């Protein structure tokens, strides 16, 4: 093992060692990939022993709230929850007029001025609120329901609501039929569309005028366009005007687009403006469904795919186009606090030389990649659709893979990428909780 470390440097060593699974980290490793467990074990090791102090209760009429002061945190029971709230965190989250500006929703408090050994001087509560007086006499008021929602104990439960699908689940899905006119005119219709899109990672808008302009208009109704080396709106045929297989007639296996961007584009739109010929059906499949199957069947494979950084690259020198893009990151990206999957970076065409991983880890990675590929290739996970003029497909490019059949004849496809943040912003504006 020793010699290969020199290739990767000291910083990388710790996590490579992680993958070698020396037995002292084995427990941590396993726990790390089941976030809650990590916290459980971390907390039980680090919680100071409960001091023999008595639980304090709120006002006599509020038996639903009681607390115990520890060295660095408050243990707060509220309805059926137990929260552990660090004192610096509590002071930092004071929403009083001098600490927080409700007009801008921004903090005014300088967190660096908070004594890291701060402790409440006095605590009292009534039915819905707990009041903490700090040593300098500043008083903070917290809604108990706010704490229940935003405390770690409240937030770690929160994951994006998704329906993971294979072909048969998708067939049963109640996908709304929404049209260009309805979406352009009605927020309710747009909301219906976005709710389906966020649940399934794909959704359609029908009866769209067959033009790049109308496609752009409907794109802008959903979010902001993510301009890229392929343009703002792209509109292409199989003329190899660009140095990429997409611009030919050959089949494309399932993939995520722009894996060679440090942040792959969040959403992609396709509108087939014309096809006189055969073939060219679109393949779609839920990458998260496949990845969750890998997690279930072999957690180690899943871990490896979340840890090993892989490089993707786009090199183009065709006509006037000179581009060289590089993106590096694991194939599966999970939030570190709860292990929820949020981004997949799977594109076997654009994956470039693996040169940052020692030989034994690389083998584990190939095994894990094979397991994921096997899942992704199961026919029962695939859906095939023929894109027709008028039907615009939206794809969550962080989750759903696309591909196509080979085709004959003239085929013109237009579309664009969207900024993911702005699509989510539209959804939140319409009242979707996300
Ligand atoms: C034609 N269009 C602009 C949509 C995509 C071109 C990008 C193709 C590239 N191989 C990738 O998968 O990212
Ligand atoms: O031609 C198609 O249907 C899709 C090609 C493709 O993968 C892309 O443009 O990103
Ligand atoms: Fe693509």
TrEMBL record:
Q: What is one GO cellular-component annotation here? A: mitochondrion
- Superkingdom of the source species: Eukaryota
Catalytic activities: N(6),N(6),N(6)-trimethyl-L-lysine + 2-oxoglutarate + O2 = (3S)-3-hydroxy-N(6),N(6),N(6)-trimethyl-L-lysine + succinate + CO2
What UniProt keywords are attached to this protein's entry? Carnitine biosynthesis, Dioxygenase, Iron, Metal-binding, Oxidoreductase
Q: In which pathway does it act?
A: Amine and polyamine biosynthesis; carnitine biosynthesis
List the InterPro entries hit by this protein, alphabetically: AlphaKG_dependent_hydroxylases, GBBH-like_N, GBBH-like_N_sf, TauD-like_sf, TauD/TfdA-like, Trimethyllysine_dOase
Q: What SUPFAM superfamilies does the database record attribute to this sequence? A: Clavaminate synthase-like
Give TM segment ranges. Answer: none
Give residue ranges for domain Gamma-butyrobetaine hydroxylase-like N-terminal.
70-147
GO biological process terms, semicolon-separated: carnitine biosynthetic process
Q: Which GO terms describe its molecular function?
A: iron ion binding; trimethyllysine dioxygenase activity
Record-listed E.C. numbers: 1.14.11.8
Q: Which residues form the TauD/TfdA-like domain?
A: 177-417
Taken from the record, one Pfam family name reads TauD
Describe the task this protein carries out. Answer: Converts trimethyllysine (TML) into hydroxytrimethyllysine (HTML).
Q: Hey, which family's this protein in?
A: Belongs to the gamma-BBH/TMLD family.
Q: What is this protein called?
A: Trimethyllysine dioxygenase, mitochondrial
What species was this sequence derived from? Chiloscyllium punctatum (Brownbanded bambooshark)
